[in-house]
Amino acid sequence: MDQRSVTGEIKTEVTASDRANIARLIEDYRLYEGVDCLVSLEEMLAPSGNKSAQLLHYQGDTLTGFTYLQHLRPDSEIEIYGMVHPDHRRKGVGTTLFEAAKAVWRRRGASGLLLVCDGALPSGKAFASANRGEYRFSEHRMVLDPAHIKRPQLSQGQQVQFRRAEATEVPILTHLVSQAFEASEEAMENWITEAISADNQRFYIGLLDGLPIGSLRTVSIGEQIDIVTFGVLPPYRGRGYGRQMLLAIVDLLLEEHWPNIALDVETKNANALGLYESCGFRTIRTCDYYQVIEGGPARS
User: Fold this and answer.
1) Cross-strand partners of 261
2) Cβ atoms within 10 A of the Cβ of 85, count?
3) For the chain, what is the total number of helices (H) and then of strands (E)?
4) What is the pTM of this model?
5) Nearest-angstrom CA–CA distance, 128 and 27
6) What gap in Å lies between CA 187 and CA 98, rounded to an integer?
7) pLDDT at residue 186 above 80?
């Protein structure tokens, strides 16, 4: 599906030729800005049940801009990741892609729209400000450095059992995730039922004396695997159970020889940040999130 704009043409279907053009755009962006793209090409173009979307802006045969829309859960906002080729900035390309992204948001009826920018780049903040984006929060991107893992000594009574969840345990996972993240059980059940059947996703459960007290999920793309949806029921927080679960999944992934193990954490979540650092994770970049507010955009 294509649509015309005053500044060029927007495509929403990615061909093999488009993929090569996106790869070149990402490399030109990296060389110009000095930083990597926030999302890998493999992740942006991987088949997904997360209802992601791609918007490509062409001027003739030249790919001048690209936007990736990520919709992780039915109760979450759509996240926008985008870039404009350095030679085609301040020509309306970014604005055209941004308006197309807002149209996708309106059609899907998602709870909100978040513009994601690299915290190290002033251009992202400027674009968000020009397009009436209100700052919401920031997240650190963290990767595992096994040499810095700290392991506390545990008594027998403190040990959490940790295992992979089965497809028949969707009701248990639904309870754990909805309680840990204060989300609708109905929305979580539908989402978990779909996600647990995906080839690149796995759910795990932490149990204390046989009672489920927490869960987490892993999502793999290529050689990278992310630890996500990590939560412990409120009554069991602050007792070291989350640390045991995190170390258990880290050990499992290391045994499976994953070269890149990563996670994201909100910068203001000091407790989680301290936990992740003590378990061997280090920050490689910070992303800023801006809430999109309807209104007249500026040119970019």
Assistant:
1) 225
2) 20
3) 8, 13
4) 0.88
5) 23
6) 28
7) yes
